[in-house]
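Re: How this chain folds, sequence and tokenised backbone to follow

Filed under: protein folding, tokenised backbone structure, sequence and structure records.

Contents: The amino acid chain and a row of whole-number tokens, matched residue for residue.

Body of memo: The sequence and its backbone structure tokens, given next.
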Amino acid sequence: MYKLKEWWRGDVYGGLNTAIVALPLAMAFGVESGLGASAGIVGAISLGIVAAIFGGTPLLISGPTGAMTVVSSLVIARAFDQSPTTEIALATIFIVFLLTGIFQVFFGLMKVGQYIRFVPYPIVSGFMSGIGLLMVVFQILPLLGHDSSLHFKEIIQLMGNIAGEVNYQALSLGIITILIIYFFPTVTKKVPATLVALVGATTIAVVLKLQVPTLADIPDNWIKWRWSHLVDYDHASWSMVILPAMTLAMLGSIDTLLTSLVVDITTGSSHKSNKELIGQGLGNMASAVAGGIPGAGATLRTLVNVRSGAKSKVSVIIHSLVLLLVLLEIGFIKIIPLSVLAGILITVGISIIDYKGLRQVFAISVSDGVVMVSVMLVTVVFGMPQAFATGIVLASLLFVKKMADQSIKKSDAVVLTPPGEGGPLEPFYMSREVHVQQLNGPLFFGFAVHFREAMQAFPDALLYRKLFVA
């Protein structure tokens, strides 16, 4: 009985603590996405419960994450920009989010989980650093008290125009939020600094009656499930949703499996990667149907759950139920200043940047450095799908070049000793004009040019080619 009581106590504490941490982040990510705070909370609830039930990492807390939200926000912004009506835009967004989950389920069924780790680290590092920088840049306008924008070039252009129109009350609240998040943990770590910053800064705004934009000032484009989203959708446009959905699915899968590895290291357990991908896929599908934004395994929230003493999936379900209660009483959320959420997201963006990779950019190989920096810059300037494609293409081309260089270094053109002098390939000699080309190392199309050049050195000879592949 005592052990059962301790077990449940750990799950209850874990669920409550992670819900406290998840609430401000879910709201902030929902606002960042462009669909409103409700979409963030709905995503955390739907994905959290379904992924916990069907996933392969018992203590994993899933929900909207910084990286997934940045990609989702760009998908949403593009849908509203390119669609003639709001209904079509929401249908496009819904289909992208639903396909994200379907792709993840497919990954799990095809047992792709164990291969995700083969995505080169420079791509992941550059991708994460670019996403972190984008998140920080996206919050500059809300921090200054202006309407947000999800277009990098537009933000840069507007910076010069709003220099003299800063809402210093909003800016002050944002700075206070950031300072609390960074310095409150030096006082105590028992209460999440993010929640303290959210409540504290909002209280200041209400008590002092500051004139700042709040959540009540932005639309809540909560997606409602409709069969027409699939039936009436323009099938000629399906090609436009495949790449964004695949990008979200890949990013969410990598993010989740990395968090699962953290759980394994922390608890000594062993997660089931393919089962986890199926759980994440079903969770993101449920989130799309419910009107939420997609997400992944969240490292910070998961560690809070583990360190709170959670022992089973019950803690994850409690976390989602607490968020559901908050959602049902969402009226008080409308008074939260947007600059406070911007401050929270700026700290999240800063934490996403891969500083370890950036510090080593001059210490690693030139090819890895080129891939990392290129992916980061393309992510910031052009977007996530282009960055991921750029990274894969660059990494593949540089790998081909590396293999070709190794082949060139290891190849050795020799003329063996004449017949009768004990050469190792004596039976193959017909005359002094017959040569043997010996190759060591990987032999593939990237080496073909060098091979041809080596052969042209003996234009009149009968060639016998014996390949030794290392």
Residues 411-467 form one domain. The chain has two domains: 2-365, 411-467. The first helix runs from residue 2 to 33.
